[in-house]
Structures are given as structure tokens and as C-alpha cells.
Amino acid sequence: VEALLQMPQDPDAPDGDGDTALQNLAAAFGCNESLELLLEARADASQTNGHGLTPLVAAAANGRLGTTRLLLEAGASPNPEDKDWETPLFAAARSGHWEVAELLLCSKADYEHTTKSGMTALGLAALGGHSDVARLLLEARVEIDPVDAAGETPLFYASRDGQGDVACLLLKAGADADRETPGGQFPLLAACEGGHLDVVHLLLEAKSMLDRTGPDLKTPLMVASRCGYTEVVSLLLEQRASTSATDIFGESAYLAACRSQKPEVVQLFTRTGIRDDP
Fold it and tell me: Which pLDDT value is given to residue 8?
């Protein structure tokens, strides 16, 4: 690289894909010596490729801490947006690179930024179960319950996908355990549908509404029973979830358990004396 740069040429010349040397050699692969040479030759640290991506996004996505630091020190903006309005902090959050995320936050990355779909860095951390990144963002006082275009929050993502560590952090930070989506879904119902026992436990400890109804008037107990999640059903029954409620089809949790074809789930009801569908 050094020999090539001694000859007259443009250090920002793109290749056939529109990527510069900074994006290809330095940022994506972490070749910091080459990166320093390119920056000394006045390569543009913020130049975008054909997809609107900068070298800093490539470095953040690949967890290149040293490369990220060099680019920031060279004047790269911490908040460039790609065609989907995502920034380097989003790339770090999605991949779980907490040290890169920490450096970006210290460099005044916009932690409240949202994409076209309403996604946030905290939402990406929750989706991926990256608790270290989520903790950093919460310590930065990021909004806890941002709502995306579908009306879903980071806690909803974590509950639906069984990301217990992130759910725990969000609940301790004051996330709304009963926030409902436009479609009538809420964290406890989503956790029960996925059979995520640890998250269900966390939500119940946070006083989530035990017998709240979702789509078709189904309760968390009905959903867990129909899916055959023995441990989740057992926990809900221990918490005195209603066994007499019915959905719009007239189906109770007991009948849902029978439909699961899981004898062990049905037995949880029969032991408590519930044998007939109301």
C-alpha cells in the first residue's frame, strides 16, 4: 500500500463495486497499518460506497475497535446514515460489539436515532440478545420503550425471542411490562407463546397482568396450554391464573391443554380439579 501511494493516484478511487480502499482493505478487514497510510494520503474517512455505507460502518459491523478509533480520530462522523437510515452504532448493536458501541457513544453517536421502520440501537441489541450493548445504551439514558412501525418495543422483542438477560435489564430500567401492540400482543403473551420460562418469570415479577387477553381474547395461560409448555403452564397456575376464562371460540385453558396432546400439561389441570371445559 505504501509503495502504491507513493505514485500519483487518488486514494479514494472506488473499485467496481463502488468501495474504496478504506472500506475494503482497512475497515472491513482491520488492516490498521494500511488504514493509517491511506489516511496520511488524505483518503476521505467518511466517503460512502454505492450502498451509502462508510468505512466506519464496516469497521463497527465487524467489531474493529482499533479501526473505529482511527477513523474517528481522522474526523469520520459518528452518525452517517445508510439508505435505511442506519448508523455505525446500529451496526455495532446488531452484531453485539459492545466495545465499539462504547467508543461510538463516547464520540457522541446519536443513541436515540431511529430508522425508517422506527428501529433503534436498543431495539437491535434486544433482538440479538446483546445485553452488554443494551446495558451501555441504558446507562446513556436512551429511551426505554421506543415503538417501531409495528408498535413493538425492545422489551416485546426480548420477550418474544426469549432474550432473558436483556429483558431483565429493560424491566429493571422501568420498561413497560404491559405495553400492547396495535395487534393486541403484549410481552407476557409473546413470552408464553414462545415458551420462554425465564422471561415469563421476569414479567410476572414485574407485575405484568396475569389474565390480560390478547387477540381472540386468549390469555397467556390459554396460549401456553395450547402450545404444550408444561413449565410455563405450571408457573401460571401457581400464580393463580384464571382457568375459567374462555376465548371468542369458547375454548378454555383446559380445553387448549387437551388440544396440545401433551398429557403432562393436561395433568396440571386435573390435579387442581379442573376436568371439564366450562
Answer: 45
Give me the domain span that covers residue 195: 117-209
Calculate mean pLDDT across residues 86-108: 97
- Say what the pTM is: 0.89
Residues 2, 95, single domain; the answer is yes
Nearest to 254 by CA among 68, 237, 155: 237
CA-to-CA separations, 158 to 57, 212, 263, in angstroms, rounded: 25, 19, 30
Is the pLDDT higher at 20 or at 85?
85
Q: What is the CA radius of gyration of the chain?
A: 25
Size (the chain), residues: 278
CATH of the domain at 174: 1.25.40.20
Contact between 179 and 145 under an 8 Å Cβ cutoff? The reply is yes
CA dist., res. 60 & res. 70, Å (int): 12
Calpha distance 164→146 (Å, rounded) = 19
Cell matching residue 116: 425508517
- Total number of domains in the chain: 3
8 A C-beta contact, residue 220 and residue 192: yes
CA 194 from centre of chain: 16
pLDDT band at residue 278 under the 50/70/90 scheme: very low
